[in-house]
Amino acid sequence: MLLPFGSSTILEQTVDNLLNSRVDDVMVVLGHSAAEMKKLIANRPVTIAVNSNYLEGMSTSIVAGLNMVSDNAQGIMLVLADQPLVDSQTINHLLDAFTTHDKGIIIPVYQGERGHPIIFASRYKGELLRLKGDIGGREVIDRHLDDILEVNVNCRGVCVDIDTVGCYHLERSKLK
């Protein structure tokens, strides 16, 4: 998250893409190296939570973030911080799909492959809060296959996680 990416870092780019979209509120959940990351985004209009249980898996970060979401929210977009290539236009496209369709789970698809971020209608908040271990929302998705809208996008970033050194160098080299 702290590695240089473009003119900033992976984390900053991801946060800025969200802030430049029509997302109403951006909540950032920090775990490992939280103090350093907090300094990077402290001047941005985001709400920050520190997940001291991050070693227990992704679900603990999801729960920490959900605990900050207003009960009045219509939807919850789960965004992976290691996806700085998901641009604001793609985020807005997903938001448009969420607001114009009756499906409760919106999943981006790039060239036939599902990706992130995923939007869940607020009715799924309780199920997401009960997640345990190193899983994301897949368990909830699998229980509600009839409530999914797959949205085709032209952004390969929805399928690119920068979670290895090799992937980092590959994606960074494409920016030059």
In short:
This protein is 35% helix and 19% strand. The chain has 176 residues and is an alpha/beta fold.
Q: The CATH topology, please? A: Spore Coat Polysaccharide Biosynthesis Protein SpsA, Chain A
- CATH superfamily membership: Spore Coat Polysaccharide Biosynthesis Protein SpsA, Chain A
Determine the structural class based on helices, strands and strand pairing: alpha/beta
Which geometry do the CA atoms define? globular
How many extended strands?
9
CATH class: Alpha Beta
Characterization of this structure:
- This protein has 176 residues and is an alpha/beta fold.
- The protein has one domain (4-175): Spore Coat Polysaccharide Biosynthesis Protein SpsA, Chain A, CATH 3.90.550.
- The protein contains seven helices and nine strands.
- The chain has helices at 10-19, 34-41, 58-66, 88-100, 125-129, 138-143, 165-175, and strands spanning 4-5, 8-9, 27-30, 47-50, 75-78, 105-110, 113-114, 118-121, 148-152.
- The strands form three sheets. Strands 5, 6, 7, 8 and 9 form a five-stranded mixed sheet that branches.
- The longest helix is centred in the middle third of the chain and has 13 residues, at 88-100.
- The chain is globular.
- The two termini are 19 Å apart.
- The mean pLDDT is 94.
Keywords, separated by commas or semicolons:
7 helices; 9 strands; single chain; 5-stranded mixed β-sheet; 176 residues; two-stranded antiparallel sheet; alpha/beta; Spore Coat Polysaccharide Biosynthesis Protein SpsA, Chain A
